[in-house]
Write the structure tokens for this entry.
Amino acid sequence: MPAKRHPSLIPLSHDHHHGLVLAFRLREGLPRNRKPSDSPREQAEDTVRFFHDNLVAHFQAEEEVLFPAIRTHVPQAIVLLDTLIAEHTTISSSVEQLSRIASNDLSLPAFLKSFGDVLERHIRCEERELFPLYEVNIPEAEATRLGAEIARLTKK
């Protein structure tokens, strides 16, 4: 991530930071508190909780505020935006599937690792490709207005 994001994107970048920490933990199989008692089931529960507590509002802010602005000002980004929306759907579906996987299912650690990979790739794409497009192409007055909407939706 660049050292300084446009202020309107800070709430989303903060969520991205926490999402990357979660993705790393899931990929490496690390428990939240680094206690041996944290099981894959507890990691799955943390993931579902993180999704509902953070990513639902985050995705809403992106899809209702950020993406439409980029669609308007950067028409060449339409394929990227469509891909990111599809990834939101995939991530949401994976979380629903994760909440249904039995705690004794031997595929749970592999599922968590795979989910961590998808989450990291998605976040990196937004930070490295989408946000720079926004910062270069969105007029300052509009970015300020969008930032207020993003903050309202993410409650940050």
About this structure: The radius of gyration is 16 Å.
